[in-house]
């Protein structure tokens, strides 16, 4: 494709802005832009192209720019376009150091990592961890200016999606810190550690695993909000690993509800229930709390108002769902009445925590007269209804005035057993008339003007690929582009069918036997739609003769039908252009004949049936062509696409199988069959290890089995027995005489579905 090959004027402008000379980029550029146009704003699109152009000029080959073009729209969708500057800063830092080779694995795993993090803040923490690893493990050879790259950095990027599926941000930081501290001077062992191949690495990983990760329960929490509280606010996680002076606590703002990225079980309360307590508390504030002018209160008075308002909210929540009380009390501290020395320390937090406990727990056990008095006043106020934030603030001011002590101003504050960590920080309660350090300003994401995509086509889909060496998935490793197959001359297919007219007659007789019958009788039923006369007479004779009659004198009917959906996946790699031994026809032409007869046969049976073809040119460019859809009939449109079939490139089978299964899984059928017609083993030009794609295809078959999809391979390679059983087990057939394929393929299908 040349620079002037793009017909759309905007696409020409985008290609010019990218300013890339890689032919591999030209092949996929328009397809990548489809997803970018749908996701990015105009400003974000321009920044995307500028960043891609910069990456393409780093001198690192085509891989980094291809990965960035494919992955960035997914990252922007997960974290926002504001994530681009820190990502580019990290890329520039790696480029300036000897670690430029780590840029490609960094970009490759950025999208799956971003989907686990959910927030720009978390991404910045991830980048800080990676850059710290790079700086501390990049070394110099003593006495020379030559430096060597970090051995563990590329391995860390490759394992990052797996790490964040197992650990919180703090856990990942601790795991990385252990590797740096112990293996910074041992390159080989450092590689093993960060590749998760050493026993030490796996042991530290296991040690850092704890609690319930937000990413694992996000959907449950979203359903909890919608189902119980009729709230649909966005949930955004934060990490507690990087705040040394003040640990963050839950809060909500214009961008959503902020919660920790991990919660451990505590006091027999599971981690997910701690999340539910946090969300319930914030929902209560959103329902019943109104803002108060903060300028009229001192900081100590605001603290008292917040404690009282939190208890009002939780009392109202418990009224609606009484089971919350057990969770709140299990998580609420219960400080002793004499724990704080009022002569030497500020006991305000201790006093308010005791009051909070007493307001929620009738068995609190405290004797303090002021606490007992205000517990009564609080419940009297709530007995009249929901009360209000204004009334509660007045009650809090009265408590502060009654219990105020000179020592409350001391800098030495008593904190032990006073932290109620399921409550938010109440920033939403306060309205500041004058600017102060307590205010928070956030950009409104709704102000971003997204524009509609100018090009109407399907965006690329990203699929994982199984790495048998590490026994892990490479997330978002393959980019698959799908399109409707171009049309040819439908009359060519009609001529092929006429050529096999005699075979079609034989197939028709076989198909008539497989066709579903309208009605089938089910006899010997106690209840049914009509009387079974033969059985009824025999029962009457038994009754008249004194024997016990058979009560099953009715019969019913059921419709006997096939309930099967079929997807035929065609390997359209370059090898199909080879001529069959002893024939002037190519393998592709014989495949056209066989598929035509098969499609004609299945149309007569009435089964939902789809045909797709695939080939690949590296993992960045897997092409999937739709030839026939499930709802389409065997007509001239489909025949025209089949007639235009062409072969080229390689065979990345695993990704194509996963994509075909994506559509087959959505069909309503008792049996789902995926037929793969191929003439060789999985292979691609960017894969040196011949076993890698075979193992990935084998893994894809297992994935489809778990989804209830039966796979079967028809292989045209005489040497297929050497590898096809590794992929499909016993579910394959090798057609040694390819000239008999038009006859064999329909017969195999009927044998599999009868």
Task: Please tell me about this protein's structure.
- With 754 residues, this protein is of the alpha/beta class.
- The strands form six sheets. Strands 10-11-17-16-15-18-19-20 form an eight-stranded mixed sheet, with helices on both faces.
- Helix 18 (369-383) runs antiparallel to helix 19 and helix 23 (587-605) packs parallel to helix 28.
- It starts with 8 loop residues before the first helix and ends with a helix.
- Residues 436-456 have low confidence and may be disordered.
Short note summarizing the structure:
The protein is α/β, with parallel strands linked by helices. Helix content is 49%, strand content 13%.
Features:
754 residues, alpha/beta, eight-stranded mixed sheet, three-stranded mixed sheet, 28 helices, globular
Average the pLDDT over all residues and give the rounded result.
87
Beta-strand residue percentage: 5-15%
The chain-level structural class is: alpha/beta
Share of helical residues: 40-55%
End-to-end Cα distance: 48 Å
Q: Low-confidence spans: pLDDT under 50, at least 5 residues?
A: 436-456
Name the quaternary structure. Answer: single chain
Biggest β-sheet: strands ordered side by side in the sheet: 10-11-17-16-15-18-19-20
Biggest sheet architecture: 8 strands, mixed
How many helices? The count is 28
**Compute the gyration radius: what is it?**
34 Å
Number of strands: 20
Outline type:
globular
């Amino acid at each position: 494709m040349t620079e002037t090959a793009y017909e759309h004027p905007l696409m020409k402008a985008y290609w010019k802005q990218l300013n890339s000379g890689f032919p591999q980029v030209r092949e996929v550029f328009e397809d990548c832009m489809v997803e970018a146009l749908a996701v990015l704003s105009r400003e974000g699109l321009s920044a995307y192209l500028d960043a891609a152009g910069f990456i393409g000029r780093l001198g690192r080959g085509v891989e980094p720019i291809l990965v960035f073009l494919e992955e960035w729209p997914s990252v922007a969708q997960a974290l926002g376009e504001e994530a681009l500057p820190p990502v580019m800063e990290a890329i520039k830092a790696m480029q300036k150091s000897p670690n430029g080779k780590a840029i490609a694995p960094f970009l490759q795993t950025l999208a799956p990592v971003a989907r686990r993090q959910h927030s720009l803040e978390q991404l910045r923490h991830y980048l800080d961890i990676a850059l710290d690893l790079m700086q501390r493990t990049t070394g110099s050879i003593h006495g020379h200016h030559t430096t060597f790259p970090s051995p563990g950095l590329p391995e860390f990027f490759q394992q990052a999606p797996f790490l964040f599926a197992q650990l919180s941000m703090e856990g990942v930081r601790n795991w990385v810190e252990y590797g740096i501290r112990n293996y910074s001077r041992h390159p080989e062992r450092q590689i093993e550690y960060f590749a998760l191949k050493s026993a030490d690495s796996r042991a530290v990983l296991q040690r850092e695993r704890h609690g319930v990760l937000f990413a694992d329960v996000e959907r449950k929490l979203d359903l909890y909000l919608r189902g119980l509280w009729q709230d649909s606010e966005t949930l955004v996680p934060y990490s507690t690993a990087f705040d040394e002076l003040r640990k963050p606590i839950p809060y909500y703002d214009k961008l959503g509800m902020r919660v920790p990225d991990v919660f451990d079980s505590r006091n027999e309360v599971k981690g997910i229930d701690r999340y539910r307590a946090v969300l319930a508390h914030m929902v209560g504030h959103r329902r019943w709390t109104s803002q108060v002018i903060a300028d009229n209160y001192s900081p100590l008075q605001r603290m008292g108002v917040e404690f009282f308002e939190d208890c009002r909210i939780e009392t109202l929540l418990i009224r609606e769902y009484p089971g919350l009380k057990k969770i709140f009390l299990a998580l609420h501290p219960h400080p002793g009445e004499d724990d704080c020395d009022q002569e030497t320390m500020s006991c305000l937090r201790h006093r308010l925590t005791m009051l909070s406990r007493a307001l929620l727990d009738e068995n609190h056990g405290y004797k303090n007269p002021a606490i007992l008095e205000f517990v009564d006043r609080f419940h009297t106020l709530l007995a009249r209804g929901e009360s209000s934030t204004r009334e509660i603030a007045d009650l809090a001011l009265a408590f502060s005035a009654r219990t105020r002590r000179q020592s409350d101003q001391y800098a030495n504050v008593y904190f032990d057993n006073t932290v109620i960590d399921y409550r938010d920080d109440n920033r939403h309660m306060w309205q500041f008339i004058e600017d102060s350090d307590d205010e928070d300003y956030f950009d409104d994401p709704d102000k971003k003007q997204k524009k509609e995509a100018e090009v109407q086509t399907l965006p690329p889909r990203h699929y994982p690929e199984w790495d048998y060496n590490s026994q892990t998935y490479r997330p978002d490793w393959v980019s698959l582009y799908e399109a409707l197959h171009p049309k040819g001359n439908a009359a060519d297919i009609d001529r092929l069918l006429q050529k096999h007219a005699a075979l079609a007659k034989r197939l028709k007789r076989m198909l008539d036997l497989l066709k579903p019958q309208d009605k089938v009788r089910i006899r010997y039923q106690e209840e049914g739609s009509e009387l079974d006369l033969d059985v009824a007479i025999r029962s009457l004779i038994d009754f008249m003769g004194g024997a016990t009659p058979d009560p099953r004198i009715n019969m019913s009917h059921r419709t006997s039908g096939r309930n099967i959906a079929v997807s035929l996946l065609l390997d359209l790699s370059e090898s199909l252009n080879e001529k069959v031994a002893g024939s002037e026809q190519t393998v592709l032409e014989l495949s056209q004949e066989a598929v035509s007869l098969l499609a004609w046969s299945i149309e007569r049976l009435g089964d939902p049936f789809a045909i797709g073809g695939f080939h690949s040119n590296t993992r960045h460019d897997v092409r999937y062509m739709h030839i026939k859809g499930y709802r389409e009939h065997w007509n001239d449109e489909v025949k025209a696409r089949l007639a235009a079939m062409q072969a080229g490139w390689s065979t990345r089978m695993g990704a194509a199988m996963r994509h075909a299964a994506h559509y087959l899984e959505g069909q309503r059928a008792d049996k789902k069959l995926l037929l793969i017609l191929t003439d060789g083993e999985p292979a691609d030009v960017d894969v040196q290890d011949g076993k890698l794609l075979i193992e990935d295809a084998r893994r894809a078959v297992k994935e489809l089995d778990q989804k209830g999809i039966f796979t079967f391979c028809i292989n045209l390679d005489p040497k297929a027995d050497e590898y096809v059983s590794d992929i499909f087990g016993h579910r394959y057939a090798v057609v040694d005489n390819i000239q008999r394929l038009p006859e064999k393929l329909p017969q195999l299908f009927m044998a599999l579905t009868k």
